[in-house]
Design a protein that fits this description.
This protein is an alpha/beta fold and about 280 residues long. About 45% of the residues lie in helices and about 15% in strands. Helix 1 crosses helix 9 and helix 3 runs parallel beside helix 5.
Length: about 280
């Protein structure tokens, strides 16, 4: 498929529902790809599938558990030359954590969720920074989650770790201002994934009927939601979206394709799409 410009794209968590979809989409478009995958079976499958790949694009695979800091540092440094020329980094790693009443959760599981969703991201940024700080143009994308902008009972470890991640996105956006680096958090909506399927298996004590019914209604639209993530990534990497940074943007519900340049300027220079206390009464 002919493309206007071949991009260098890195996807962390490429074996999950979102990462896998993005990989296939960007592969079909002919971009160069570096994929970090936790699942050993999945990476072996990809290696067999692309064993005889001789196309005009680069495809690299690396097995990685993002919570293992030494392994993370080693495998980022191994690909530093590719990373220095990267246009887009998507970090789709995440864990839903234990679902249930806050006071009944296992604290070890609680810490583990924070380790995956937040602390591993801190190590990720501190490790990768030396390789990206001089990039000519770089867009970094992470994922927000359900409950970040509202209340979601019985998902405390997941929501709190994602809130911390979203605030990190905002802080890093400020600290990247003198660099050619932008960073945003995507709110993807309900996706047909292992995490979503796990919710459907919960009892009514942990997840109320209203949320279950909402998931059942939205999960059938998963492919549409996944495609909208791709559309948002392309928009944020376009000339029109190039000044947007530090924001939470919904790929499903925000009508960004119709934003005027005046509106984009207003968004960029305001608290719109950030976590804030509502001040008007």
């Amino acid at each position: 498929m002919a493309i206007k410009k071949k991009l260098n794209i890195i996807i962390f968590g490429a074996s999950g529902s979102i990462g896998d979809y993005l990989f296939n989409q960007f592969y079909e478009e002919g971009h160069n790809l570096l994929l970090y995958i936790r699942n050993k079976k999945k990476i072996n499958f990809f290696k067999r599938k692309f064993k005889n790949h001789k196309g005009f694009q680069t495809i690299k695979f690396e097995q990685l558990d993002i919570t293992k800091s030494n392994d993370l540092k080693k495998k980022i440094l191994h690909h530093k030359n590719f990373i220095k020329k990267t246009d887009i980094i998507v970090n789709a790693c995440g864990d839903q954590g234990e679902i249930g009443n806050f006071f009944q959760l296992n604290l070890k599981n609680f810490y583990k969720t924070f380790e995956i969703n937040f602390f591993s991201q801190i190590i990720f940024f501190r490790t990768i920074y030396s390789s990206i700080k001089n990039n000519k143009k770089l867009l970094i994308l992470l994922f927000s989650g359900g409950g970040v902008t509202n209340s979601r009972k019985n998902f405390s470890s997941y929501v709190l770790s994602k809130v911390a991640l979203v605030k990190l996105v905002e802080i890093l956006s400020e600290e990247f201002k003198n660099k050619n680096i932008r960073i945003n958090a995507i709110s993807p909506g309900i996706i047909d994934s292992q995490m979503t399927r796990a919710i459907l298996k919960q009892n009514k004590k942990n997840v109320d009927t209203k949320e279950i019914n909402k998931i059942k209604k939205e999960i059938v639209k998963s492919n549409k939601s996944l495609y909208k993530i791709v559309k948002l990534i392309k928009f944020l990497n376009s000339k029109k979206g190039q000044n947007i940074s530090g924001k939470i943007i919904s790929s499903r519900w925000d009508n960004y394709t119709k934003w005027s340049m005046k509106k984009i300027k207003k968004i960029s220079n305001s608290d719109i799409f950030n976590l804030r206390r509502i001040q008007k009464i």
